[in-house]
Design goal:
72% helix
């Protein structure tokens, strides 16, 4: 029984594939349109994934600067150093003496003469720490807690960029969802019209099939396979478009990466995301065909 069922579906599958190949120009145009439509939201999704990964690398160990009050005694500095090292939220601690900070400022700005004329060093001692937390809320709580220490004059950490980036990523996800919804409806409409035209061209064949006792499921099966196959082909085309676009972008990012000494490489879709894209595109094609068959097949009855 199962073998007969598999043989029947296999026969319909290859028959539908032959029908798809028999009209190469029409099928190719439909597949290209579907591929372009699917590549737009998928491309934005890939961009959001890369931005999120890049922000995670950037903020994986955020840096925070603690400026001490002027003339803080050495024993207080050692106690602060020990207190920071014992904090489980802090990964690394680096102490920067005020003399070293002034020397670094002279080298970076070239104001050696002005610095030499100063009566005293105006810069405070400071600690530079890298934290384990990378969320804006946790970092802000840590900053406020250390700001209350009596020896600390100011704790500097710019968390606004993390909040802006997170807001941008949320906006991007919403844009992907809206665009994917609209284009999915467009793909279903394209497949609906394609199957409608096929039903009209095969009206006599469908009437004859019903006349000799063929069931509706048997008649609609080739159309459903046709929609699913065309949807899968559209998804594969979208994947190829994105792969080519990412490769082109990465070639252009080589110069930018060298100038800023950072690794800027767009990562393609993962295997799981690629499979999801193909399954989703195939489902869209099947759904459009299913709706079209349900809307038009009942209107055809043997005379």
């Amino acid at each position: 029984m199962i073998r007969a069922w598999l043989i029947q579906h296999g026969f319909v599958f290859f028959l539908t594939l032959k029908r798809l190949i028999s009209t190469p120009l029409t099928s190719l145009l439909s597949i290209i349109v579907m591929g372009i439509a699917l590549s737009l939201p998928a491309g934005i999704y890939v961009l959001m994934q890369n931005l999120q990964a890049f922000s995670g690398q950037t903020a994986s160990s955020p840096q925070m600067s603690l400026f001490l009050k002027l003339d803080t005694p050495q024993d207080s500095i050692e106690k602060i150093h020990q207190r920071l090292e014992e904090n489980p939220q802090i990964l690394t601690v680096q102490f920067i003496p005020k003399d070293a900070a002034l020397q670094q400022l002279q080298q970076s700005t070239g104001l050696t003469d002005i610095a030499a004329s100063l009566a005293r060093n105006p810069l405070p001692d400071a600690f530079v720490i890298h934290t384990q937390e990378n969320t804006a809320e946790a970092l802000e709580q840590l900053r406020l807690a250390m700001q209350k220490w009596p020896e600390i004059e100011h704790v500097q950490f710019d968390s606004a960029w993390i909040e802006r980036l997170n807001a941008l990523l949320e906006l991007g996800r919403f844009a992907v969802l809206m665009l994917a919804t609209l284009l999915s409806v467009a793909i279903i409409a394209i497949m609906f019209n394609t199957i409608r035209l096929q039903i009209l061209t095969k009206r006599d064949e469908i009437e004859l099939s019903k006349l000799i006792g063929a069931t509706d499921s048997f008649i609609r099966r080739p159309f459903l396979y046709f929609g699913a196959l065309q949807g899968l082909a559209g998804g594969a085309t979208a994947w190829l478009i994105m792969a080519l676009a990412i490769r082109t972008f990465n070639e252009q990012l080589v110069t930018l990466s060298q100038l800023y000494a950072i690794d800027l490489q767009l990562q393609p879709l993962t295997t799981a995301d690629s499979i999801s894209l193909l399954l989703f595109s195939g489902w869209l094609g099947w759904l459009g065909a299913r709706i079209s068959v349900a809307s038009h097949l009942w209107q055809i009855e043997p005379k």
